[in-house]
Amino acid sequence: MIVQTHRILVINPGSTSTKIGVFDNDQVVFEKTIRHTIEEINEFQEIIDQYEFRKQVILRILDEEGININKLSAVCGRGGLLRPIEGGTYEVNDAMLEDLRNGYNGEHASNLGGIIANEIAHGLNINAYIVDPVVVDELQDLARVSGVPEIPRKSIFHALNQKAVARRASLDLNQSYKESRLIVTHMGGGITIGAHAGGRVIDVNNGLHGDGPFSPERAGTVPAGDLISMCYSGQYYRDEMMKKLVGQGGLMAYLDTNDALEVEKMIEHGDDKAKLVYEAMAYQIAKEIGSMSAALEGKVDAIALTGGLAYGKDFINKISERVSWIADVLVYPGENELEALNEGTLRVLNKEEMPKHYPNFAE
Questions:
Q1: DSSP-assigned states of every residue in 197-239
Q2: The pTM is what?
Q3: Which terminal residue of the chain has fewer beta carbons within 10 Å of its beta carbon, N or C?
Q4: Using CA atoms, how far apart are residues 330 and 302, in angstroms rounded to an integer?
Q5: Phi, psi of 347 (to 5 degrees)
């Protein structure tokens, strides 16, 4: 049987870089991280204004590498801060583009992903897609209740990598993602732990500025009363308090670094404070995994650990020692976002899944 080859361009914009990859089915043809200088970025007043600049850089590099874009089957961009939607692969449409351009849920470089993908795909008369953006919301109703009616719990997490790893773990368990009951833990600059059941993430901590374990640069759950007292102490502006929670929290706050490798070196040189804080982060991750096992009623097929921190063997062991009684621990280091974007697009092109439709909320 002849297997059709689909050539897919994937685009993952970051604050000062754009990662691109070209795949023939699941094989990498070309991959590159394009670095943008501060001077280049500062020429644009708004993030959204960068899309034409970044698009032209991508096209130039593909041309220099001898990659004929006319052979592309589809283009996929990183999903941005859209309205809450269920997981899956979405065809880029006008309603999505409008929300990305307007920064419906906030401004972030990931908003450029769908726009650039659409711009390139439109000129080639092929489809553009996004896959599992951070706003994926599949929470069960029980998980939304916070204790304060005005502040419902929100689903903002590393959906792209979590979903990709959940599928990988399910494959290793010889079952489908929809059959699996998994706890997936993404451990990077932010840390999110999701309870996956029936192909949905029914509970997950808010990895942006919400709850859960502290991370290399985020504070996670902190005592609410003391936080309110700090806010009204007159010592801090709102932006300063937000930075304490996101960007300057976690390892940064305690150890002045968000680099796990640097922290491990500090521990090797006998730094007791670094040892305590690093182990506390593993301890909090393990506690959150325990919490998600309750969300799954104790019926857990496996615990999957992923993200950059999953490269640290000692760190993984600290977590595994506390949670291996729940289920087997599977480790998938790294984020592999380009591969995840490609896999989501490939499932649609191979007709394993139907593309989802981003609704027009104005209708």
A1: ETTEEEEE--TTTSSS---SSB--S--HHHHHHHHTSSS--HH
A2: 0.91
A3: N
A4: 7
A5: -60, -35
